[in-house]
Amino acid sequence: MSNVYIIGLGMIRFTKYPDRGVRDMAHEVTRLALGDAGLDKSDLQAAFFANTFWGMFNRQHSIRGQVIMRSMGIDAIPVTNVENACAGASTALHLAYTGIRAGMFDVALALGSEKISHPDKAKSLGAYATCMDVENFEHHLQNIAAVNKAFDINIPEGQTPPGQGRSVFMDAYAMGARWHMSRFGTTQEQLAKICSKNHFHGSLNPLAQYQNTMTVEEVLADSPVTYPLTRSMCAPVGDGAAAAIVCSEDYLKKLKNPRPLKILASVLGSGTDRDIDGEDIGERLAKQAYEIAGVGPRDISLAELHDATSYGELHQTEAMGFCPLGEGGPYAESGATMLGGKQPVNISGGLETRGHPIGASGLAQIYEIGLQLRGDAGKRQVEGARIGLAENGGGNIGLEEAAMCIHILEKA
């Protein structure tokens, strides 16, 4: 089996694009990735395309990837359409990785493009609910409410307004945050610290949707979404695309002046029907990824974690083994996860400020880690970056993500 390398990366700024569509954003990042790799579109032997909402918003179902590829002059090659909620783009990369590792291809494209912004805001927010068990949706909401009642948390009046104007995932994340607060004494101020840190990182990233700094006090004073989350602690609705080109070791040897990143581990898994104190999907998959890569949590120079909310980052720093269970809040307060800290997290600004067009987010994480390992991240460069980890969760069933990918990359 061949080692697998990333040789090309492409991304556009995540933001709201009223005049752009899934197709032209995908074309742009594909051209960027090909240019970065020094390849022509005719060199591609396979493509894996991630998207979730194109069919819902514009009725393009079934052959989305073939439509994207054919309309930019790429045909004949196998094209696989990937839909895995927020983990779609990282799943596309995983599939490209497995195809090359199995010897089926020598060079392949992983691509994610998503347009979620819509004149009808309710339609955008309502789309997220399709990333849950739709037929059992009411039962799922009842479970969230029942679990919430078990927590000894005093919710300030007005801090959980009626469930309009937000996606249902914010309620799921708030449930996790309240559990953590009840069990470990985590505070809303610690969540605000994470958010403020990510706004600082995002202010240094020209491809981030939000590029403004926010103090802890400003985060806490922002509009309440569902306690303990305020608006700035939650990823915004937006559009964007990202791509990566991967190749085999034999193919890499044929290239002139490559800038490769070795994929040490690529793990994809699904959630389990566990109780709230059971082993989390992130803990389980991180152990697998570390074993495959031959590294441990202390070897990770930087990480991009799935922070659809500030609590998401806090939780995943624990699940990835960067700090013990229950200590994510103090760990964030210590400055360890900030640029210049011992283990920076979400230097891109994370989903909270870089943005979260869900079919592209996983590859945006890979793009950031690639910049960092190549030493191309400019003002937000992590000194001595050698190994990076990306964790990307998707959807929700029960008490955890329906799907998750973890990738570990090394500077080659």
UniProtKB/TrEMBL annotation:
SUPFAM superfamilies: Thiolase-like. One of its GO terms (molecular function) is acetyl-CoA C-acyltransferase activity. Residues 286-397 form the Thiolase C-terminal domain. InterPro entries: Thiolase, Thiolase-like, Thiolase_C_2, Thiolase_N. It holds the Pfam family Thiolase_C_1. Residues 4-157 form the Thiolase N-terminal domain. It comes from the Bacteria. Signal peptide: none annotated. PANTHER family: ACETYL-COA C-ACETYLTRANSFERASE (PTHR42870), NON-SPECIFIC LIPID-TRANSFER PROTEIN-LIKE 2 (PTHR42870:SF1). This is Thiolase. It comes from Desulfonema ishimotonii.
